Amino acid sequence: MSIQESIQLKEKDGIAFVEFDLVGEKVNKLSTPVMMRFKEVVEELKKSSFKAVVLKSNKPGIFIAGADIEEIKKLKTKEDFKTVIDQAHQIFNDFEDLPMPTVAVVNGACMGGGCELILTCDYRVCSDDKSTKIGLPEVQLGIIPGFGGCVRLPRVVGLQASLDIILAGKSVDSRKAKKIGLVDEVIPAELIEERSVDFVNSILSKGKRKKRFQPKGMMNSVLESALGRGMVFSQARKMVMKNSKGFYPAPLSALDVVKKTYGMSNRSKALQIELEGFVKVAVTDISKNLINLFFMMESVKKQTGVKGDVKPRKVKKIAVLGAGTMGGGIAQVAADKGFFVRMKDINNDSLALGYKQAQSIWSKKLKRRRLTKHEFAEKMSHITGGLDYAGFGNVDVAVEAIVEDMKIKKAVIAETAKHMPQDAIIATNTSSLSVTEMAEAHPHPENFVGMHFFNPVDKMPLVEVIRGPRTSDEATATIFDLSKKMGKTPVVVKDGPGFLVNRLLMPYMIEAMFLLEDGMAIEKVDRWYTHKFGMPMGPFRLMDEVGLDVCVKVVKIFRESLGERIQVPEVAHTLSKSDRLGKKNGKGFYQYDSNGKETGVDSSVYKDLGLGQPTNPLTEKECLERGVFVMINEAALALIEDKIVETPQDVDLAMIMGTGFPPFRGGLLRYADSLGSKYVVEELEMYATKCGPRLKPTTPLSQMAASSRSFY
Amino acid sequence: MSNANKSDRDVVLVEGVRTPFAKAGTKLKDVHPAELGRTALQELIARSNLDTEVVDEVIIGNTGNPSDAVNISRVVALRSGIPLKTPAFSVHRNCASAMESITLGYEKIKSGTSDVIVAGGTESMSQLPLLMPPAIVEIFGKLGAARTTGQRLSVLGQLLKADLKQIVEMVTTSPFAQTPHKPRISVMEGLTDPFKGINMGQTAEILAKEFGISREEQDRFAVRSHARAVAAQKSGRMAEEITPVFLAPKFKEVVSEDIGPRDGQSMEQLAKLKPFFDKKYGTITAGNSCPITDGAAMVLLMSREKAKALGHKLVARIRSYAFAGLEPERMGLGPAYSTPIALKRAGLDFKELGLVELNEAFAAQVIACEKALNSDEFCKEKLGLSGKLGEIDPEILNVNGGAIALGHPVGTTGTRIVLTLMKEMQKRNVQFGLATLCIGGGQGGSVILERED
Predict the structure, then answer these.
(1) B170 inside domain
(2) Which stretches of A75-173 are DSSP H helices?
(3) Does residue A673 contact residue A711 with C-beta atoms inside 8 Å?
(4) Catalytic member of B290, B369, B379, B438
């Protein structure tokens, strides 16, 4: 019964209205039952004598969100996929072949399968509502448009516009949709009911059509020509390789499909080619990993960061202590989402840096026309600053981002609490100090919590919400919710050295220093990590970003708190005596110009560190395994023994969002599982014998291997 | 009589703050007056830990009326985070615009209409525009109406001719002389009395001559204004009422002090300046007049009951105010006309005033006010009083300097003098104070405050 109601067929003045409104769901999606129901509707339409057919949605803000990803997740074999897609092709083809003209009326998000469905219509109109977005995000999940999108979109909007959307998994708003010819008309959202019917009536006399892209202007005509196409394809391929470094097969497969099918008159043959291309990538682990990541992100949206029914507090006004790189970044991100932010620092020059940081981020958007000048001015006015505690009297949350010194932090926290409402929350952005100890300075430690952002704040999506032993559920939930409202992905972690992400990164960076001592070249190791493993930057570049003085300091702290698993390499001692601070003073493992752009490794670095010129004695396999496996080793301890986080998902999400650990590998622990704990342990034992006890497998990891268990 | 009973509907000042004042054309010249206003208002909100939801209305004085923010009060309010529901309007009473914003707020609270009012003023005299003269406006009108290319070319030809005439006029006439093709300078027109057609400086010349005020007397007054302002800067007193302006987009500079007061301003230096308005017999120079200036100031007004309920510290209550009119050509005497009325409304005697902020548009005009109020003849004949009010003790007059040193952003000054007065009354434990100013067009305005403990 309910599935009948989910797609209803109504009639008015001889026009059929196919109305999507999935019962019991927030959004419309093309699950198998829905497709079966749609098939029924199409059969009915085939037999009818309606003047025209209109596709529409009765859900606010949504047309059709796409295929059911839960279902995709369950499909395993090539045959599974083939059955589902063949069926969909049949239904879509039947709909496309209806004798009467068909019109899609899009008012809301129309993604993936939804977009592919409207491409089978003769005409498309959409509303100018902000929610109206049409696109094909499939490649983000490691698959390609499989319901005919690779075949039909290029036909409708031409090669360039379609590759733009398909290869990057993008969507377009109503204005762009009209511009590229994806829709025939944009109608004001308030008038869409009435005026879309007017539109349908206006096309009755024109009847069916198969829209074909007509290039406008000389340049476009050339690029659409047989000769020009070759150029477009090779350019597109270059872009894809540049963006994906070849790690993601989906865009390449999509490109291949478009190349083979563009201009092909035999529809079923073209769809068959698309199907082959789809199946090839859909069965890969890469796609599975990306889909898992999607679900992890979805689940964060629903989580509160605590167990049980705890409501986060309403936050209106935020204070940031310290307007430096982190403080200024936090202020910008909060203000960007509409919070009023008060920065406090010790002098006007520091405040000016905070303003400047926000200004530069937004002015880039202004230049790219992502913001109007009025929006820009409004955002800027959401940040104010001062040298005293003025304005703290009605601040809901203060985030502390001052110098990493426990004594100073404690003093400032105690002082700040005096100027805030009794129950106000103070959060620390510390990356290396104990949240538990810091909480002692707060007169109400239940309102003290860690909120660890990553640098650069506007780009890095992770926030570690550090829950101290006395932190209340309400404070945790409030900071968790606030992180989400600031557009970030929060992961709740327990207090402990380096919390989660830095704790895992530290042995990784230390191992890189050992590789250096073993005679490896800096840029070679980094290149393997980026181009062979898929990290956004190699360990040496990362250390330069963090600051070498900070790295060395933290290594020593770790050695104290974590014991002999942390070995301090000789290089660290030499480093701390050199003037190499990393990117911030233009000189670290690499050199940087005045704009902070990396200009390569200077050959004197090896000598400065008391090393000979690199001889690169180690294999790629060893270099990558030592770095990645020490992280797995540490993660086993952090997760299983210290319970810093609760699930392997937490580790994977944090590593992907906080360090850019390659998403296609599914995260650190999924990657470990794909290798098997036994293999990891064997390799670590081998490296430990060769290089030192720091590489010895930790107890929980050894136990996993002994009983052949995996993290998940 | 002087100790009026406290009432719940008393209008009290809770907090106040201003931007630095900067001589026009200097550091703040590129800052839009709405941004100046925002800077002051957001700091006012911060310093008073104000829950913006409780604000009933925002009233801001402004005379320049920038064409891209015609109701500048609303722009300032929304940019500052005042809720959408809260109305805002701008007021214009020339030099007393930002006193009008306070007295209007006073009336609204006193009557029970409102409980919380943000009042203030903002002005960028640097950004007052040059206006196209009618002869050229007409050509642009024709250009818009031209339909064919031929018509358009012909109008463009006219424009070229007019431009050439403009260049000729620029070379052949004096800088401020008005001609058919030269742009009209709105700051000059604004400072010219529209009824009598004479410049504000010329009104001061009239007073200097009628009251026999010498050049030396005026220059000495100017030197004192600078000395007091500089002392207030050095002691940190001035900083208490100022919030810095960070200069976007580079944020390389922060303006945190007034740009105007000159350390070591001497009589000799002032003596070198030529009279500006009456070259031969005049005494008014750029040195003994206030400079045109950019800046904003805001105060927070509440009913006594609301302020107490919200837990705010009270600074001063407004006891009374008065505006009065007089001959436009003697506008500088405005304070002498409005002050006795305000005193009467407050039930106070002139001698009870412990501090006076009398805006220094021109040294001559301040001195003329002093002389007028200390003259039986003037007070009887012109003000209809039984006799003179008395002498203003120089030790209580403009104790931190005045507009000659600090500058006079026309739409802001009214709030600035109330702000300075309320802070100083607290500092000196003075019970009653007067803030008063002269108003272009021939008016005076006065506000009398009583300190709150």
Answers:
(1) yes
(2) 78-96, 113-118, 149-157, 159-168
(3) yes
(4) B438
Closest CA to A322 of A342, A339, A308: A342
Clarify whether residues A528 and A638 are in a common domain.
yes
Return the residue matching tokens 């940081």. Answer: A357
Interface test with B, best of A314, A343, A356 (most B CBs within 10 A): A356
User: Residue A169's pLDDT is what?
Assistant: 95
Instruction: Look up the ipTM and state it.
Output: 0.92
User: How many structural domains are present in chain B?
Assistant: 1
Chain A residues at the B interface, defined by Cβ less than 8 Å, are 340, 342, 348-349, 351-353, 355-356, 359, 363, 377-378, 380-382, 384-386, 390-394
Residues of B in contact with A352 (CB under 8 A): 246, 251-252, 254
Mean pLDDT, range B96-111, rounded to an integer: 98
Smallest CA–CA distance from A420 into chain B, residue? B49
Question: Strand pairing of B57-61 and B88-91?
Answer: parallel
Q: At A707, is the secondary structure helix, strand, or coil?
A: coil
Q: Is any Cβ of chain A less than 8 angstroms from the Cβ of B279?
A: no
Provide the 3-class DSSP secondary structure of residue A214.
Answer: coil
* CA distances to A543, A592, A631, A674 from A537, in Å: 10, 15, 16, 23
Q: Which of A332, A348, A350, A378 to mutate: most B Cβ within 10 Å?
A: A348
Structural domain including B169 reads: 133-182
pTM of the predicted model over 0.90: yes
A-B CB pairs within 8 A amount to 52
Q: How far apart are the first and last CA of chain A?
A: 39
The token pair that represents B264 in the structure block: 């070591």
pLDDT digits 0-9 by tens, A492-524:
999 999 999 999 999 999 999 999 999 999 999
Within 8 A of A348 by CB-CB distance, chain B residues are 244, 246, 254, 256
- A603's CB contacts (< 8 A; 6+ apart) are A613
B329 within domain boundaries = no
Q: Does residue A32 contact residue A76 with C-beta atoms inside 8 Å?
A: no
Per-residue confidence (pLDDT) for residue A675, from 0 to 100: 96
**B243 with A386: Cβ contact below 8 A:** yes
User: What are B136-173's pLDDT values in tens digits?
Assistant: 999 999 998 999 999 999 999 999 999 999 999 999 99
Residue B169 domain flag: yes
Does B95 participate in catalysis according to the annotation?
yes
Reported confidence tier of residue B1, pLDDT bands at 50, 70, 90: very low
Using CA coordinates, name the residue in chain B closest to A388.
B47
Residue A256 lies in a domain: yes
Residue A516 lies in a domain: yes
- Cross-chain Cβ contact B46/A390 below 8 Å: yes
For A367, counting Cβ atoms within 10 Å of its Cβ (0-12 exposed, 13-18 middle, 19+ buried), the class is: exposed
Neighbours of B34 (CB within 10 A): 27
Q: Is residue B137 part of a domain?
A: yes
Distance separating alpha carbons of residues A420 and B138, to the nearest angstrom = 60
Q: Do A352 and B246 touch (CB under 8 A)?
A: yes
Q: Which residue range forms the structural domain that includes residue A76?
A: 2-283
Question: Do residues A156 and A164 touch, judged by C-beta distance below 8 A?
Answer: no
- Report the alpha-carbon distance of residue B411 to residue A135 in Å, rounded: 53
For A581, B270, B407, the CA distances from B120, given in Å and listed in that order, are: 49, 33, 17
